Amino acid sequence: MPLSPLPAPDTLATVCLLVFAWQTEPGYALVVAANRDEQLDRPAHPLCVLRESNPRILGGRDDLAGGTWLAVNDHGVVAGLTNRPSSGGRDLSKRSRGELPLMLAGQRSADDGVAELVRNVQAGEYNPAWLLVGDRQSLYYIALPADEAPVVHQLTPGVHVLENVALGESSPKVDRIRSLVSAAHSANTTLWTALPSVLADHTVPVTADGESSKNDAIARRPATFASCVHTDGYGTRSSALIRVPEDLHARPEMLVADGPPCTAPFVDVGYRWDR
Which top CATH class is 9-273? Predict the structure, then answer.
């Protein structure tokens, strides 16, 4: 059966994936994996120097709306964003949500980044979103409702998976990723070794039938419930792996795939801390 046409861009359920494993891996305080799913013709760079210094920030760049979906600084703060889809599309009169990971990573600690966001973000200033931000000392989940102030939750050690539903709500995609992570742990495989294949997984959970659920603002194609998404004109554009050593003097390690992780190789971009 041929695929039905994609919705118009302003009603498309834009999907991204974040996996934050905090205080679970020996020698590393934080391990992060991310897939960036977007329209294939939307201009973007998978990795740029987003800020030169104080602190230096690396991350992807959305060349259309500005900002980023994932930012990491040289102090070990990592901040990621997923959009909350809306049936009416994003409100173009509001500020770009891509500013928010930059705001969080613009501080020397996750604690300070969260305080900066709470102090500066006003209710209704941005379209709805969810964020994760962590470093060696702490990890936070931030919900940004449509017309309310940000809601901050401090998280405990463990593996936290965020897609385009609120953290902790039922999702076939999250359940599938958790099962893959659990299998890696059972096999005594480090997350750093296992996560590339988790990000490249094409399995669509059997419960993902494409219908709207209570967590979805609009219907989603079943393919968007896979980790690595492929549909006409839309899919996984890039991937990133980050790990923050427990050593306070060590910079974060970062690998980036410029393309879907099922075909694009992960490349070490650690040299970008210096140039």
Answer: alpha beta
